[in-house]
Amino acid sequence: MSCETALLLGLAAQRIQDYIASTSFSVARDTVLSGRTPLRGGTRRVSPVNLDGYWNANSFPTFSRQLKALKSQLSLSSGLTYTHTPGLIDGIVSRSGVTTFTQGMVLSSNISNQVDCADLGWERSEK
After folding, report:
1. What is the separation, in whole angstroms, between the first and last Cα of the chain?
2. What is the number of other CB atoms lying within 10 angstroms of the CB of residue 75?
3. 10 Å Cβ neighbour count for 5?
4. DSSP characters for 6-26?
5. For residue range 24-65, what is the model confidence (pLDDT) as tens digits?
6. What angle is formed at CA 69 by the lines to CA 64 and CA 73, rounded to 5 degrees?
7. What CA–CA distance (Å, rounded) separates 66 from 63?
8. pLDDT of 95-109, one tens digit each?
9. Does the pLDDT value for residue 13 go beyond 90?
10. What is the C-alpha to C-alpha distance for residues 127 and 117, in angstroms, rounded to an integer?
């Protein structure tokens, strides 16, 4: 049985508890941290911190069609991803959201039992 067209829709989501984020704070004037570490005024200190609130979700549909005249398969794909990331700046929790859109195309061929190739591939990603 052969299939001339196919459509695949993938969905995924992820949530991370205790996400390792960055915390940063600025020092207005010369100071000493924990009695040991001297910092000059204007210094920004960055360190890791565990924060809740990270998640992402994405979708990635793919459409494929057999091209009999070329003895090839054309696949077109697209995807949309949203990522929500927490951070901590000067003691204030911040949240950022980024949306990414991707598109792709692959022309593959199975010319014979001995040759199987994906000759042409293209992908574009945009934030």
Report:
1. 41
2. 17
3. 8
4. EEEEEEEEEEETTEEEEEEEE
5. 888 888 888 776 778 888 888 888 999 999 999 999 999 999
6. 20
7. 10
8. 999 999 999 888 887
9. yes
10. 31
Does the pLDDT value for residue 125 go beyond 80?
no
Answer for the pair 68, 106: CB distance below 8 angstroms, yes or no.
no
CB 66 within 8 A of CB 12: no
Q: Structural domain boundaries of the chain?
A: 5-126
**Residues 19, 89, 26, 34, Cα dihedral to 10°:** -50
- Looking at the chain, the whole-number percentage of residues with pLDDT higher than 90 is 48
Cα–Cα distance, 75 to 20 (Å, whole number): 37
How many degrees, rounded to 5, is the angle at CA 118 between CA 114 and CA 121? Answer: 170
Structure tokens at 45: 């200190």
In the numeric block, which tokens belong to residue 20?
């390792």
